[in-house]
Design a protein that fits this description.
The chain is an alpha/beta fold and about 525 residues long. It has three domains: about 120 residues, no CATH class; about 160 residues, VC0802-like; about 160 residues, Rossmann fold (3-Layer(aba) Sandwich), CATH 3.40.50. It is built from eleven helices and 23 strands. The strands form five sheets. A seven-stranded mixed sheet has the order 11-12-10-13-16-15-14. It is globular.
């Protein structure tokens, strides 16, 4: 279909190709608001709107960047257009564009669109995402109809804090603290829902109930008792301390810390609820406690089952890599959905599946449940639905990808295919049985991203030198490629035969590993 360029908003250019629009926004419009109607006639109603976005202004950062934002307009008009594409559809868009952050989602963007077809059917959909520090667009019934503000604590793998920080910034929220294994940011009820659904490298999302110093159990008890538990936990809530961790603190016994915190919570709720007995037959309210240098931080776990459990991986290899760690590894590379990615030790398929989900803009939490969905008095049900709809609207399974996963075991290849089917991305990945000795690819400038064996078991250690030498030999034949490899094998660089350009210490569970980054040349820029 021949591209048609239309002038929609002053200074903006719109390009219509098939079902896709491309809007080029001039830098000088950053931070301002433009409102204009534009009418477009086409034989197929557009289902995807892309806007080259402008970055945050003085309210957040003064730098201006451009990225891409996808909007999928799911309306009665588009449904008709899919079923009878010969009909001509006239589409009216009313755009209200505000400041945008550096992210692939619709954050801090105000947009409303009205679609009207020739048969008179009409539908109007409005979606508003609030700015940082605002009360947000969705009103939860409560005091003044405004959403509550939280400090949200997000744990992650040690060594992946920078990746998580970038993800949270991309969602449009302000980071307040970064420590080893945790990132804290300010957000409202909608932020909690969106963080659970969209964050790929996170382990869970906690509401920070409070923080205080404590060097004795008495101080721990009193500090916990003074926290406003009644604002979160109702009289029938089931609450317990699911985990306590202590680093460089005088209080170090996890079981004792858990017991004291639970007792203090009970005493506080006895006073606020005016009762001496709690049935604990309502929603779950798991609590987590962190002690760092005698400073206690108490959080309420909104996630439940860890975020690395996306729901697609029912069968795994002997030493599987966690889904959130695999996603973080990919995000540490320049790879994008238009580049080649090969995992020669794919096992149950985690790295290729996570890459395919990124390419398809599929949120990691799109098909799972969260503990806080039952916290009706804390988070409005409509907020979870809105975040879920946002995630569903972004999915694009029609993208073209070159993602491949190899394994020497036929059974593991079948497991990887089954997992990809459960994730909904089986058409975006090619799995096959192939020994690493046969690793090759006809194309240039690809990426090897992999989690090879470490030699954890005693009888495997003897095989590691030969295996890593083979990895090095095959990688050298892919002379324009880059390789990103996580391993706890101490002689990885020596046996590969090349010192990594970069490496990063990462804890895969309790095991210290290194993420070796062997960088290849950049592809030449395309002309024109």
């Amino acid at each position: 279909m021949k591209a048609t360029v239309l002038r929609a908003v002053s200074g903006w250019s719109w390009e219509l190709t098939g079902k896709r629009f491309l809007a080029e926004v001039p830098r000088e419009t950053a931070g301002c608001e433009e409102r204009k109607w534009t009418t477009i006639s086409t034989t197929t109603a557009p289902t995807t709107l892309r806007t080259a976005r402008t970055a945050r202004t003085a309210a957040t950062r003064t730098r201006t960047r451009t990225r891409t934002t996808r909007i999928r307009a799911r309306t009665r008009t588009t449904i008709r257009a899919r079923t009878r594409t010969t009909r001509t559809t006239t589409t009216k868009f009313f755009l209200v564009i505000g400041t945008l952050p550096k992210c692939p989602y619709l954050h801090r963007m105000h947009i409303a669109w009205k679609i009207q077809d020739r048969w008179g059917s009409e539908t109007m959909k409005q979606r508003k995402h609030g700015t940082e520090g605002s009360s947000g667009p969705y009103r939860h019934e409560g005091a003044g109809g405004r959403m509550r503000k939280f400090e949200l604590i997000v744990p992650c793998h040690f060594g992946m804090e920078a990746v998580l920080k970038r993800e949270i910034n991309d969602l449009g929220y302000e980071i307040t603290e970064v420590v080893d294994g945790r990132v804290t940011f300010a957000g409202d009820e909608a932020a909690l829902c969106r963080a659970n659904i969209f964050l790929r490298s996170a382990e869970r999302v906690l509401i920070k109930v409070g923080s205080f110093p404590a060097e004795t159990f008495e101080e721990l008890f009193e500090g916990t008792k003074h926290l406003p538990w009644e604002e979160y936990i109702p009289a029938d809530g089931r609450f317990w301390v699911t985990k306590a961790a202590s680093v460089k603190s005088k209080l170090f016994s996890p079981s004792d810390i858990q017991s004291i915190v639970k007792k203090a919570m009970v005493e506080r709720l006895k006073e606020s609820c005016h009762t001496d007995w709690f049935p604990e037959d309502g929603a779950d309210y798991p609590v987590r406690v962190f002690l760092m240098k005698d400073q206690v931080t108490v959080g309420l776990d909104s996630t439940g089952v860890s975020l690395h459990k996306r729901g697609y991986r029912k069968l795994v290899a002997q030493a599987p890599i966690a889904e959130n760690l695999a996603a973080a590894m990919i995000m540490l590379t320049p790879w994008n959905g238009e580049r080649i990615l090969v995992d020669p030790f794919c096992g149950s398929g985690t790295i290729p599946i996570e890459a395919a989900m990124m390419a398809a803009h599929m949120a990691p939490g799109i098909d799972r449940d969260f503990t806080a969905e039952d916290w009706r008095h804390v988070i409005g049900k409509g907020l979870w639905q809105a975040a879920q709809e946002e995630a569903e609207d972004m999915v694009d399974l029609h993208v073209e990808t070159d993602i491949q996963g190899y394994d020497i075991d036929d059974h593991m290849v079948e497991i990887a295919r089954d997992n990809a089917r459960r994730a909904g991305v089986e058409k975006l990945i090619h799995f096959q049985r192939r020994d690493v000795k046969e690793l090759s690819h006809p194309k240039k400038y690809g990426f090897l991203i992999t989690n090879p064996p470490y030699g954890e078991r005693l009888h495997d250690k003897e095989e590691m030198p030969a295996l890593y030498r083979t990895i090095g030999e095959r990688f050298r034949l892919l002379d324009t490629w880059s390789m990103y490899l996580i391993s706890a094998y101490e002689n990885a660089e020596k046996d590969i035969g090349r010192k990594a350009d970069k490496n990063r210490k990462i804890y895969n569970g309790m095991m210290k590993a290194y993420y070796y980054q062997f960088l290849g040349p950049k592809p030449p820029k395309s002309r024109g």
